[in-house]
Design goal:
By secondary structure, the chain is α/β, with parallel strands linked by helices. The protein folds into 2 domains: 173 residues, Rossmann fold, CATH 3.40.50; 143 residues, Glucose-6-phosphate isomerase like protein, domain 1 (Rossmann fold). It is 46% helix and 14% strand. The chain has 14 helices and 10 strands. The strands form 2 sheets. Strands 2-1-3-4-5 form a 5-stranded parallel β-sheet, sandwiched between helices. Strands 7-6-8-9-10 form a 5-stranded parallel β-sheet, sandwiched between helices. It is globular. The two termini are 28 Å apart.
Length: 348
């Protein structure tokens, strides 16, 4: 469809991510006046929250600092984290548009208790940016469509670089890996388009399932959200091991399932699951850094420090743009244009 700009946004990602890395390498992300924290609270909704979840394995390995990821509703209503001033604590609120009311409310609550606040947003003049003590630009550029693609990738990368800067962590091995990984994205886009064209019957899937682990648990969450938003069908997502505790019963002959297979602690479990899926349905896609491409596999390169999340998300983004078009749906078009402002989750 000529009026579907999501294709352009997908294609822009290598240049955008290279730009973020160059900016970081030249001057890093400097937050004046924020001392090294011992606790970082990250809050966001939708794609921004999935970006934070993607980095949870990275966060969990950091020593001397507790990193907490929570959605705004739970954070402000069912936690005490923002109820009083806490020394050495910082909150990062993420919103690409800078208009998410829940994230803004968390920043307001933190401000009331003198907890340093950072807004990670693309809109530097947004309500969220004006509320926070400090603002970091996401770096994705304009993306004026409901389903975000390049915004997700830019958020993951910029958030990780921001945390590295706040904590003064060793960064060179990771940066070197990302510089290589960015150069592979265009090849994965091409392979994903070809796979989509050869499997256009996936547009008629009644439901979909996306499963991953590690960094790719967050990627699977984001992929499920994108497919749900654009195909407008139920899409299930679970962590690899949790999927094996009940949801596996949904695997039947007419199931459509996407599995993200990378090296790591979940590799054996995932290989076992793939073999089981093969015995039940022919409608499966494996996004793999361990196996070569075939009729059911899109291959990505192995990147051990990041689980190749920059590449594994690409097939999911391509599918969310291609499959709705097969059904005559423009995935970039709003379904309920005023929904967010009507229910109160976003300001004008």
């Amino acid at each position: 469809m000529d009026n579907n700009p999501i294709w352009d946004f997908i294609e822009e990602q290598p240049e955008i991510l290279q730009g973020i890395l160059k900016c970081y390498g030249r001057e890093k992300i400097f937050i004046k006046g924020v001392k090294k924290p011992k606790k970082i609270i990250i809050t966001a909704s939708g794609t921004s929250l999935n970006a934070a979840y993607t980095l949870k394995p990275f966060f969990n390995q950091i020593k001397d600092c507790q990193l907490i990821v929570e959605n705004p509703f739970q954070l402000r209503h069912y936690h005490t984290l923002l109820d009083e001033h806490q020394a050495d604590t910082v909150i990062i609120g993420i919103s690409q548009t800078g208009k998410s009311t829940g994230t803004m409310d968390c920043i307001k609550k933190a401000n009331a208790h003198q907890i340093p606040t950072i807004a990670l947003t693309e809109a530097l003049d947004s309500p969220l940016a004006k509320l926070a003590n400090h603002v970091v630009k996401m770096g994705c550029g304009p993306e004026d469509v409901p389903p975000k693609t390049k915004g997700y990738s830019a958020t993951v990368l910029t958030l990780q670089l921001l945390v590295l800067t706040l904590l003064d962590c060793e960064d060179q091995p990771l940066i070197a890996e990302y510089e290589k990984c960015v150069n592979d994205i265009s090849e994965v886009i091409t392979a994903s388009k070809l796979w989509s064209e050869n499997n256009s019957h996936w547009s008629k899937a009644p439901t979909l399932t996306v499963v991953g682990f590690g960094y790719n648990d967050g990627v699977a969450k984001e992929g499920a959200l994108k497919l749900l938003e654009t195909l407008q069908i139920p899409v299930m997502n679970y962590d690899l091991e949790e999927f094996m505790h009940g949801p596996h019963r949904t695997i039947v002959e007419d199931s459509f399932i996407i599995l993200i297979q990378t090296k790591g602690v979940g590799e054996v479990f995932m290989n076992n699951l793939i073999e089981f899926v093969k015995s039940k349905t022919t409608n499966y896609l494996v996004i793999s850094s361990t196996n070569a491409s075939d009729a059911h596999t899109i291959q990505v390169k192995h990147y051990p420090l990041s689980d190749a999340w920059m590449q594994t998300v690409i097939p999911l983004q391509v599918l969310c743009s291609y499959l709705p078009e097969v059904n005559g749906i423009n995935p970039a078009a709003p379904v309920y244009g005023s929904f967010a402002t009507t229910v109160g989750t976003r300001v004008e």
